Amino acid sequence: MIREGSVEVLVLLDSTVLIDVLRGRPAGERLIGLERAGDVPCTTAINVEEIVRGALPRETETVRRLFAGLDVLPIGRAEGWHAGEWRAHFAARGVTLSQSDALIASAAYLAGARLATGNPRDFPMTELTVEHWPVGA
């Protein structure tokens, strides 16, 4: 992606980070820092579902505003294929990846995005750039 002569860097925000943003914790400040640096925060439909599912009715409007400001990366055939290959690869080594984490990781990887998460151990794929954003503080 190119914007005004510079390369945009996508940063996919995992659900752990999105929850911290919604709760006004330090991840929110990091999100503002991303935008100031010219990086583009994004997420996936899986993360949207996870957040909406856990939101309280009084939080609905805040959640809507958060997602209105984020790009949502596609999860299609290529992402599904890549996620399936990763799950098979790790399963052969005795490591179970969740379907949702593998799809989220695949969306980030195929879009060239970094993945920001509070749970980096859920994303052991060496091809993927994972940033640990400590959450809950």
Topology diagram in text:
Blueprint: E1 2-3, E2 6-7, E3 10-13, H1 15-22, H2 26-36, E4 40-44, H3 45-54, H4 60-68, E5 71-73, H5 77-91, H6 99-111, E6 114-117, E7 130-132
Strand order of the largest sheet: 5-4-3-6-7
The tally of strands reads: 7
Helix/strand/pairing class, anyone? alpha/beta
DSSP strand content = 15-25%
CATH superfamily: 5'-nuclease
Radius of gyration: 15 Å
- SSE order, as H and E? EEEHHEHHEHHEE
Note poorly predicted spans: 1-5
Portion of residues within helices: 40-55%
- The CATH class, by name, is Alpha Beta
CATH-derived architecture: 3-Layer(aba) Sandwich
- Shape type: globular
Q: The CATH topology is what?
A: Rossmann fold
Q: Can you give a write-up of this model?
A:
With 137 residues, this protein is α/β, with parallel strands linked by helices. It has a single domain, classed as Rossmann fold (3-Layer(aba) Sandwich). Helices cover 48% and strands 17% of the residues. The strands form 2 sheets. It has a 5-stranded parallel beta sheet with strand order 5-4-3-6-7. Residues 1-5 have low confidence and may be disordered.
Report a brief summary of the structure.
With 137 residues, this protein is of the alpha/beta class. Helix content is 48%, strand content 17%.
